[in-house]
Amino acid sequence: MTSTDPVDPPEGWQKLDRRTVAVTAILMAGVAVGAAVPAVFWITAGTSFALALALAIVVPAVLLVIAASAAADYVRWRKTRYRIGAERAELHSGILLIRRRSLSRERIRSVDLTAHPLQRVFGLVTVKIGTGEKTGAGESTLTLNPVTRPLGERLRKELLIRGTSDEGTLARLDPGWIRYAPISFLVPALGLGAGGAVMQVAQWFNAEAAVIGWVDDRFEGVGLIPMLAILLAIALVVGVIASLALFVEMWWNYRLDREHGTLRITRGLLTTRSISIEERRLRGVDVVEPLGVRLAGAARVDAIATGMTQKDEDDKTDHKTLLPAAPKEIADRLAADVLREEVSPTEAARLIGHPRAAYLRRLRWSYGSAAAFVAVLAVLGLWLTSVFLHLAWIAAVVLAPTAFLLARDAYRALGHALSGDYLVARSGTVRRSTAALQRDGIIGWSIKQSVFQRRAGLVTLTATTAAGAGAYSVYDAAVGEGLIFAREAVPNLLAPFVEE
């Protein structure tokens, strides 16, 4: 199919772009060769005769895998057709088991475009058309993989853009925002993952002993604790570099546009993504401040919208983030623009504080977690080596003030309020969340009170909704004040169950 093909020809039914076969063949060639090379070295151990024999076996096998994959994708292409009609979007696919799926155009809530690097070379995109409903086996989503990019853009506009006529750019990427990428708990995980990857590659080539020996030579004469500290520092440096690269890949060319009642996020360096959210299914925003980012005066903005929780088997795209970590004032301004408010409810609301009993609960949780960690290290020290005993007392010294500061910060974060048409709830310290949820989007209340909360006169109120995470909680509020707050937020919902 070329970019000049009509969206709805007389016959109606259309095929995917046939260049998908070439894309599949090239992808499988890369995968097969990437798997074959370490396998050959592992089997042959570098001997010339065994290497030649392995190549004589592996090369035909690689070619067979590539040919079989291309043939299977060719059959898939031949047996897949779709039709975008006036009332329905339909997809027929399958070889032995024929699948026929159909979505009403009135229920379509998302049309997302993605393209990995090879698809971009061919000018192709994968189009995912969804209703936002949570049904099994991806029945609420039609995936057209692939079509040409111009056709994908036309489908997105025809199926999704409707409503108001205003449009404009709400946000663009500021390269300076990359400074927030390394301030994340993901950094040490990326560094340790890189170390694990090195050992995995060494295992493929039977070089684990050589790598370990090289490390031993570099640290000859260095004590165990200094060596661990140096390795941890190296892991952190690698993690910082990896986090910067990840940010660039995910958020390159980021922009948020309003197009005729639709919010559209475009981003990505190697894999490009275009995510659309209808404003009529937007129920609020969540201003999220992870600890490190918050200390740097930044925050990100997530959408609270219906139909944002669906995931299919190969969907790893984060659909809800409207703005990556950026200065807090920019995040607040964007939240207001998205909600079409002069000031964002997350910024304007005067939050109601929570009783001191909520502070004491957080102190117990914080010190209890720290004590459990120290106890585990102490047990390992008595059982295995005295190194863990040293780590235990060091952890105790470090965690004692840290636990106090985290508990106090978590208590200060607690708050709730009503701001116009929105319920605002804030909580968290490692991940502080300030959610502004439309009051008419609340479909129910869940009221929970543990034994300890009951003794302290506290209650947790959870507003349930069909949007976003599905539930937003006000933690450890005073019982009387919390119930009155819930009744005022949605008067006709809780009033029959509250005694005057």
Automatic annotation (TrEMBL):
Occurrences of domain YdbS-like PH (ranges): 77-157, 411-474
InterPro entries: UCP026631, YdbS-like_PH
Chain segments annotated as transmembrane: 21-43, 49-75, 180-205, 225-248, 365-384, 390-407
Keyword annotations from UniProtKB, A to Z: Membrane, Transmembrane, Transmembrane helix
Pfam families (alphabetical): bPH_2
Name of protein: PH domain-containing protein
Protein's organism: Kribbella deserti
